[in-house]
Amino acid sequence: MVFDTVILSGTIVTESDVFDADIGIHNGKIVTICESGSIEVGDAKVIDASGLHLFPGLVDVHVHFNEPGRDLWEGFETGSKSLAAGGVTTFFDMPLNSNPPTTTKERFLEKQQLANEKSIIDYRLWGGLVPDNIERLEDLHKEGAIGFKAFMSECGTDDFQHADNDTLFKGMERIAELESILALHAESNEMINYLTDKAQKEKRLSIRDYCNSRPVLSELEAVERVVRYAELTGCKLHIVHVSSKRVIERIKEAKEQGIDVTAETCPHYLCLSIEEFEKIGPTAKCAPPLRERQEVEGLWNSLKKGDIDIISSDHSPSPPDLKAQESIFEVWGGIAGCQNTLHVLLTEGYHKRGVPLSKIAEVTALNPAKRFGLFPKKGSIRIGSDADLTLIQLNETFVLKAEDLKYRHKISPYIGKTFIGKTKYTLSRGQCVFEEVDEKTSV
Ligand SMILES: [Zn+2]
């Protein structure tokens, strides 16, 4: 057999197993997985992976790269380089906060062209469901939208309208007909608008006041409502960025009732609580907000039990001035974190809480690839799959510095955090898209 690249003596992590092997890559695909030391290297490029773990390239189903229109916030080039540095080899870009948002075929094609030119890894695009585009969903679907995204509450910009109940219901009926899927930002608009107004009128403006204005109950109410709509319309659902175990359990109940729904959470809900938010400040503002410490532990328990399907970043960066508003209520609500998803999971999950490596591979690669129809091309290390891989030194410690970040703006709540588990190489369809610069500075 002829190989373009061979990866020797690594430890392979799949959703079901961890084992030592050599890997042979040809034309961007994995063509051989064999016992360490048994591969015929020939003229292939050699990557020595001794002491390293090979994970399937992550599939991040939830990023906002904001291009076109707000590429000063991020963009496909900086965004995809950040992901590659964190072991992500496929991303799905959200229909907002690009401006205009991706709610028509024309916008979709325009964004696709930009992503084609600029992204260094594979990608798919979400279409948006907004009050005036139900007639356009079919076009978006035909162009290859991975699914549709809607907001049940206001999203923070004026150009992507949230879906009222009427839009939601009719949109779900249409999306079910198209056999596509709806991703939902599930917070009750009525509850959070009321609580936000009240807090502001009463001059309760602390970080904790902000968090209390968007309670877990508002997520729960929105999820309750939408699973009923799913029951009636048959629309497949993916609930994004769930912040609480209670919501995960409600989704699990819906699954048990036969509703086709999956739950996503993000590294920040597994790593940061309100106390950290108070220390870090506006950089850690997101919506739904960070929760109490026991909620963080609750989510880890849900993950261990297999109740969380997907972990993605919800990378939602902004320029520094939008994070520097006087009131926390006015600050941009989005966390920039997509470069460190795997680092958070290895540090907080594998090292601190004993979460198996296979579980991490499952929720970051296998499950997202399966849920959105990319498996077996993506999502696992197996013969015939794309050679999308990330190589990790599992026990190497590093402190994240602003200059390590490849984002357009070097802002992240994880700056200064000590991570255990360092990315050495990332391969996208066999091509090296990230290689650690060997600084030889031992920690
Ligand atoms: Zn988002």
UniProtKB/TrEMBL annotation:
<feature type="binding site" description="via carbamate group">
    <location>
        <position position="149"/>
    </location>
    <ligand>
        <name>Zn(2+) 2</name>
    </ligand>
</feature>
<dbReference type="GO" id="GO:0000256">
    <property type="term" value="P:allantoin catabolic process"/>
</dbReference>
<dbReference type="InterPro" id="IPR032466">
    <property type="entry name" value="Metal_Hydrolase"/>
</dbReference>
<dbReference type="InterPro" id="IPR002195">
    <property type="entry name" value="Dihydroorotase_CS"/>
</dbReference>
<comment type="function">
    <text>Catalyzes the reversible cyclization of carbamoyl aspartate to dihydroorotate.</text>
</comment>
<protein>
    <recommendedName>
        <fullName>Allantoinase</fullName>
        <ecNumber>3.5.2.5</ecNumber>
    </recommendedName>
</protein>
<dbReference type="GO" id="GO:0008270">
    <property type="term" value="F:zinc ion binding"/>
</dbReference>
<dbReference type="GO" id="GO:0050897">
    <property type="term" value="F:cobalt ion binding"/>
</dbReference>
<comment type="subunit">
    <text>Homotetramer.</text>
</comment>
<dbReference type="GO" id="GO:0006145">
    <property type="term" value="P:purine nucleobase catabolic process"/>
</dbReference>
<dbReference type="Pfam" id="PF01979">
    <property type="entry name" value="Amidohydro_1"/>
</dbReference>
<feature type="binding site" description="via carbamate group">
    <location>
        <position position="149"/>
    </location>
    <ligand>
        <name>Zn(2+) 1</name>
    </ligand>
</feature>
<keyword id="KW-0479">Metal-binding</keyword>
<keyword id="KW-0378">Hydrolase</keyword>
<dbReference type="InterPro" id="IPR011059">
    <property type="entry name" value="Metal-dep_hydrolase_composite"/>
</dbReference>
<feature type="domain" description="Amidohydrolase-related">
    <location>
        <begin position="54"/>
        <end position="400"/>
    </location>
</feature>
<feature type="binding site">
    <location>
        <position position="241"/>
    </location>
    <ligand>
        <name>Zn(2+) 2</name>
    </ligand>
</feature>
<feature type="binding site">
    <location>
        <position position="62"/>
    </location>
    <ligand>
        <name>Zn(2+) 1</name>
    </ligand>
</feature>
<dbReference type="InterPro" id="IPR017593">
    <property type="entry name" value="Allantoinase"/>
</dbReference>
<dbReference type="InterPro" id="IPR047604">
    <property type="entry name" value="Allantoinase_bact"/>
</dbReference>
<feature type="binding site">
    <location>
        <position position="314"/>
    </location>
    <ligand>
        <name>Zn(2+) 1</name>
    </ligand>
</feature>
<feature type="modified residue" description="N6-carboxylysine">
    <location>
        <position position="149"/>
    </location>
</feature>
<comment type="similarity">
    <text>Belongs to the metallo-dependent hydrolases superfamily. Hydantoinase/dihydropyrimidinase family.</text>
</comment>
<feature type="binding site">
    <location>
        <position position="185"/>
    </location>
    <ligand>
        <name>Zn(2+) 2</name>
    </ligand>
</feature>
<dbReference type="InterPro" id="IPR050138">
    <property type="entry name" value="DHOase/Allantoinase_Hydrolase"/>
</dbReference>
<comment type="similarity">
    <text>Belongs to the metallo-dependent hydrolases superfamily. DHOase family. Class I DHOase subfamily.</text>
</comment>
<comment type="function">
    <text>Catalyzes the conversion of allantoin (5-ureidohydantoin) to allantoic acid by hydrolytic cleavage of the five-member hydantoin ring.</text>
</comment>
<dbReference type="InterPro" id="IPR006680">
    <property type="entry name" value="Amidohydro-rel"/>
</dbReference>
<keyword id="KW-0659">Purine metabolism</keyword>
<feature type="binding site">
    <location>
        <position position="64"/>
    </location>
    <ligand>
        <name>Zn(2+) 1</name>
    </ligand>
</feature>
<dbReference type="GO" id="GO:0004038">
    <property type="term" value="F:allantoinase activity"/>
</dbReference>
<keyword id="KW-0862">Zinc</keyword>
<comment type="pathway">
    <text>Nitrogen metabolism; (S)-allantoin degradation; allantoate from (S)-allantoin: step 1/1.</text>
</comment>
<dbReference type="GO" id="GO:0005737">
    <property type="term" value="C:cytoplasm"/>
</dbReference>
